[in-house]
UniProtKB/TrEMBL annotation:
This is 2-phytyl-1,4-beta-naphthoquinone methyltransferase, chloroplastic. The lineage of its organism: Eukaryota, Viridiplantae, Streptophyta, Embryophyta, Tracheophyta. It comes from the Eukaryota. One of its GO terms (molecular function) is 2-phytyl-1,4-naphthoquinone methyltransferase activity. Its EC number is 2.1.1.329. The gene is MENG.
Amino acid sequence: MVTLHHCLPSITGQHRRPVFPFKQRPIRCAAAAERQELFNRIAPVYDNLNDLFSLGNHRIWKRMAVSWCGAKEGDNVLDLCCGSGDLAFLLSEKVGPHGQVTALDFSKEQLQIAASRQQVRSKPCYKNIKWVEGNAVDLPFSNSYFDAITIGYGLRNVVDRPKAIEEMYRVLKDGSKVSVLDFNKSTHSITTSIQDWVIDYVIVPVASGHGLASEYEYLKNSIKEYLTGDELEKLALEAGFSSAKHFEIGGGFMGNLVATR
Ligand SMILES: C[S@@+](CC[C@H](N)C(=O)[O-])C[C@H]1O[C@@H](n2cnc3c(N)ncnc32)[C@H](O)[C@@H]1O
């Protein structure tokens, strides 16, 4: 079983040294603590419902997000808000056994599922993933530490998004990229209406069969309170990134921001 906190191996070389030993700082914001609880509660069914609701397409979008982050063999990369680890496993295949993947989340339950999936998977490269319990707005890593970052369906759920983007900028090396996959907050009313309909009449009823109606009702508001592609690009540029481009994917229902430090 992979331990969650102080699991990164010590790496020599000044700029490759994480800030450790690391103790998770308590989540002080009530809204963030509520979201942490929510993701703990949905953890047991999260993967199955993702497959069902996206008809398996989330696997394609995650591959696209990983390819856009520019990770290559031997890189030291970070997956933020990793949940049960889908993007971390894909990153691991990209960077190979000589690379290193750090996957961070603030939900213990999601991390436990990720660690158990790692145990039953046989590809040797998967041994290069370390799971870290932590907060995306207060990353326990030194400056300019990573060659690439992914964050899938995470930024929308982070309460202080500007701070999270600033943290990504801080821990990325110059010239490296972050790839931010999430639902698209579309500016087209037809797309928004279809998205709302699917949430109200498919996602919430199915989730209520698992006793998780309110958890999935949260999805609709979280998309409404999220940022449009243009706003995401602006947020990244304000955090210091030299370029930022948002791509609509999945028929406009999903979006992926790519920002270069
Ligand atoms: C919708 S899940 C996405 C999981 C995974 N990336 C995927 O694409 O399947 C969002 C994840 O973000 C995590 N999360 C939300 N806010 C966070 C924060 N401030 N710090 C760390 N993790 C956070 C939640 O615990 C949850 O596991």
